[in-house]
Amino acid sequence: MYQPYPGGADRSAVDRPTPSPVRQAVLVMYVGAALSVIRVIVVLVTKASLKADIASRAARAAVPLTASQINAAETAAIVFSVVVGVIGAGLWIVNARGSADGQKWAQVTGTVLFGLDTLALLIGPGGLGITGGQPVVDRICTAVVWLAGLSAVVLLWQRSSRVFFGRRQA
Questions:
Q1: Which residues in the chain come in under a pLDDT of 70?
Q2: What is the pLDDT of residue 7?
Q3: In this structure, is the dihedral angle defined by the CA atoms of residues 77, 83, 84 and 89, taken in order, positive or negative?
Q4: With helix as H, strand as E and coil as C, how does the chain read?
């Protein structure tokens, strides 16, 4: 029969079941990771409209751009979107695993990342967020990813979730 390590933690407090809001938040985080990947795919599929948007913005600003400059701007925007999307998906997954394990850092990190995403959505650099010049489908994907973050944060800070994370930390 297995004997616990002398002086080890009392497992009865740690082995309690994960509350439903935490399980739902973890599921939402995995959906958020999938949505981040889908958003990368949308960016890649709509790259032709991105090039047209870059050219029209330059024309409106009376800044003449060569075809080479437009291609470079398009490539930079695509690379940026892919890198941010992959990092975002990874952060969703890491945070989901930490939340499922009851790690307090995951609750706090998820909230901070949601706050940063909200700032980027509202006042982020030009061409990003909901008011940016990207195609409508990309803006919709951005809004849906943000809503997933909002859902996860609300679930993570419900009373039973706070008790769960506090108990795991102790």
A1: 1-16, 124-135, 168-170
A2: 56
A3: positive
A4: CCCCCCCCCCHHHHCCCCCHHHHHHHHHHHHHHHHHHHHHHHHHHCHHHHHHHHHHHHHHCCCCCCHHHHHHHHHHHHHHHHHHHHHHHHHHHHHHHHHHCCCHHHHHHHHHHHHHHHHHHHHCCCCCCCCCCCCHHHHHHHHHHHHHHHHHHHHHCCHHHHHHHHHHHC
Alpha carbons 108 and 47: distance in angstroms, whole number: 35
Burial of 145 (0-12, 13-18, 19+ CB in 10 A): buried
The pair of structure tokens assigned to 55 is 């050219």
Taken as a whole, the chain contains a residue count of: 170
Give φ, ψ of 125 to 5 degrees: -60, 155
Residue 133 structure tokens: 């010049």
